Amino acid sequence: MWCGRRRTPPDLLRRCLRAQRRFRSVAPKPEEPRNLLAAARRVAPAVMVQIHVKRGEESQFLFSATVDVSVETLVQQVAEIYNGRLKVERLCSEIPELADHGISLPPNMQGLTEDQITELKLTDEWQETCVPSGGAEFKKDEIGRRSGHAPSDQMKNVLKKTVEEAKALISKKQVQANVCVTMDMVNEALDQLRGAVMIVYPMGLPPHDPIRMEFENKEDLSGTQASLQVIPEEEAQLWWASKEMQRGKKLQDYVGRNEKTKIVVKIQKRGQGAPGREPLLSEEQHKQMMLHYFRRQEELKKLDEADDDSHLQSEWSDRHALKRQFQGLSNIKWGPRLFTGSRFCELHPGERLLNVSGPQGQMNRNGKGRCGAASRSARQPGYYP
Q1: What SS3 class is residue 227?
Q2: What is the pLDDT at residue 122?
Q3: Is the predicted pLDDT of residue 341 greater than 60, yes or no?
């Protein structure tokens, strides 16, 4: 019996080859690019205008758009991302309080002491319902906003780690990294925070908790500092080059048709007027410049002290002293002198002669006289001959 490899029948092989040729002739051939530039244009993404959004002098985020987009759509998208980032920042400031002191107390119990709560017979009906996973640890809230039943250390780490990841996703450092922020990134940060809270509190949070109100878009910011930062989409304005970008126009009416453009715009609330001009140097650059000039000034002072040439006026540094000594000119003094009889009295700068009409200080025509006590005492400082 022959036990070898089974071979394909010749007629079946012919039919397969015939069908393959027929398929190749009927199937459309892909259009090949004429050159590498055309192929690169197909693969590379579209180039878009990069917009650096600021509020005042503070950078917020980068945003990309095409030149064909209308200004109204652009304002709505920028305002949506701006307000979304503010929501994430508010949640990132509240969640650590949730990790440290538990859920929020009802509004009628916040700020009251234990004696006042007992006296008024107030109870928190959500305390037994909203229990964190892994049990609770009591840690009193000194402010009196939260119940004090905090989650375990493991659940705390989950919340705090998620907060750090959400902050990094919409951080202002993305501007330095040249990363454009989109609304999908903001929603992703919100989903991360929402998931972490659901892990720690599977039964949910009470309806009056500010974290739950933020997730449900029911937050009440009236009377708070955060309300001044929020800009409604219908009241938002974009300013570029000290000009307001009108909603009825397109972006190309301001920056042209060039897609490879980067502009700096400032978001402003309607009615606040044009934003102020930024200084040429930032505060940090100004500090560095002042520090540089101070160090340079200290270096110049040290160089001046090292290059002091006052010793060149001393007698021992006179290079012509030896020559004058050989010539007998070393003890010559120049200046006015007063002949008072037996010797000349030299008048130094700052001295004056008093009582010149007296018998001891008087000089005759021949220049003869005496240099007595009166003439010595007559020289007083204060007169330059």
Answers
A1: helix
A2: 86
A3: no
Identity of residue 309: D
Q: Supply 342's token pair.
A: 């037996």
Tell me if 355 sits within 8 A of 385, measured CB to CB.
no
| Confidence label for 314 from pLDDT (cuts 50, 70 and 90) | confident
State the pLDDT at residue 271. 84
- Are 251 and 68 in contact by the 8 Å Cβ rule? The answer is yes
In the chain, alpha helices (H): 10-26, 36-43, 71-101, 114-120, 153-169, 173-176, 183-200, 210-215, 226-229, 252-255, 283-306, 321-327, 373-378
Cα angle 308-310-313, degrees, rounded to a multiple of 5: 150
> Whole-angstrom Cα distance, residue 368 to residue 20?
146
Q: What is the 3-state secondary structure (H, E, C) of 319-381?
A: CCHHHHHHHCCCCCCCCCEEECCCCEEECCCCEEECCCCCCCCCCCCCCCCCCCHHHHHHEEE
Sign of CA dihedral 222, 226, 228, 232: negative
- R_g over Cα of the chain: 46
Rounded CA separation 11/98 (Å): 78
In the predicted model, is pLDDT for residue 158 greater than 80?
yes
User: Could you tell me which residues come within 8 angstroms of residue 204 by beta carbon, excluding any fewer than 6 positions away?
Assistant: 130, 198, 212
Alpha helices in 238-282 (DSSP H): 252-255
- Cβ(91)–Cβ(99) under 8 Å? no
What are residue 58's DSSP bridge partners?
55
Higher pLDDT, 8 or 238: 238
CB of 170 within 8 A of CB of 181? yes
Assessment of whether the complete model's pTM goes beyond 0.85:
no
Residues in the chain: 385
